[in-house]
From TrEMBL:
<protein>
    <recommendedName>
        <fullName>Inorganic polyphosphate kinase</fullName>
    </recommendedName>
</protein>
<dbReference type="InterPro" id="IPR016064">
    <property type="entry name" value="NAD/diacylglycerol_kinase_sf"/>
</dbReference>
Length: 299
């Protein structure tokens, strides 16, 4: 007998809760914000909207289903199951934060603050949750398959991201490495830069787009469901021993980028989650390309 679906509600601590944790009381938090020219009232209203949205979504979960909640900072320790339906209640970025820990489970994005969030990934309102939960477990239910990017190190460490993966120094230093296509006998160029960014069509609404626009790149940005990635080297430094000929490109399915570390330490993280990063040292190799796993975003 198969298990009933489990609705996993993903949320994050609100700004108001963070203020209370830091200052102890509402009054002290209000004084702190007032001293900096801000009012706590709008912060408190956003908190109430967020908590109410979470309560409304929880109430919409069918009675025969199981239910669980996970806060953003605990995602890397939460065990998602194949029968889960993941309901992200919050901002677009929270969908990306959760995506890297999933393996094909359907995801529903609920916007807690319409008008303030772009709504690219959190496309729905709390009132839609009941219908969306039913649709998520219906065979053939409508969903967008969003392309993801992966990094696989030579020690088997693996990292997924919905928007982009960054490889580079952990601070403001320069990373040294060799970069080239992940193909037999393909030449690799020694480089020194502030890092490499590899992004998807979903990421083309954020960091990837800003680099693409600043670079005035002739490459065409991919769409969220396109099987294409773009990559850019950030601030490559020309010198007698480092080059700048491989600073941008496109990766299709089956193509990859290979980077071999020539620094003491390089970090690899996805979607801004620096606390959950891979750490690579001198001589290690990491390969980047389109992940076989995509994000199933219920529409």
């Amino acid at each position: 007998m198969s298990l009933a679906p489990r609705a996993v509600l993903v949320h994050r601590t609100t700004e108001y809760e963070e203020l209370l944790a830091r200052h102890g009381t509402h009054g002290q938090a209000a004084f702190f914000l007032t001293s900096r020219g801000r009012s706590i009232e709008e912060v408190a209203r956003r908190h109430e909207r967020s908590r109410q949205a979470l309560a409304d979504v929880a109430a919409a979960v069918p009675l025969q289903w199981r239910q669980s909640r996970v806060e953003r900072r605990d995602l890397d320790r939460f065990l998602f199951a194949p029968e889960d339906v993941v309901v992200v209640v919050g901002q677009d970025g929270l969908v990306a934060n959760a995506a890297k820990y999933l393996s094909g489970q359907p995801v529903i994005g609920i916007d807690t603050d319409p008008g303030r969030n772009p709504g690219v990934l959190v496309r729905h309102r709390p009132a839609d949750a009941a219908a969306l939960l039913r649709a998520a477990v219906t065979p053939g239910g409508a969903a967008d398959e969003l392309t993801m990017v992966e990094a696989v190190a030579d020690d088997t460490q693996r990292l997924l991201a919905l928007n982009e993966i960054y490889l580079g120094p952990s601070g403001h230093q320069t990373a040294r490495y060799r970069l080239g296509p992940d193909a037999a006998d393909s030449p690799a160029e020694p480089q020194a830069s502030s890092g490499v960014l590899v992004g998807t069509g979903t990421g083309a609404t954020g960091w990837l787009r800003s680099v693409w626009q600043e670079r005035r790149s002739p490459l065409t940005l991919p769409g969220p469901t396109d099987s294409r990635l773009l990559w850019f080297v950030r601030e490559a430094w020309p010198s007698p021993v480092t080059g700048t000929s491989l600073v941008a490109g496109e990766l299709g399915r089956g193509q990859g980028l290979r980077l071999t570390v020539e620094s003491d330490r390089v970090v690899v993280f996805g979607d801004g989650m620096e606390t959950d990063a891979l750490e690579l040292t001198w001589g290690q190799t990491v390969r980047l390309g389109i992940s076989p796993t995509s994000l199933r975003l219920t529409v």
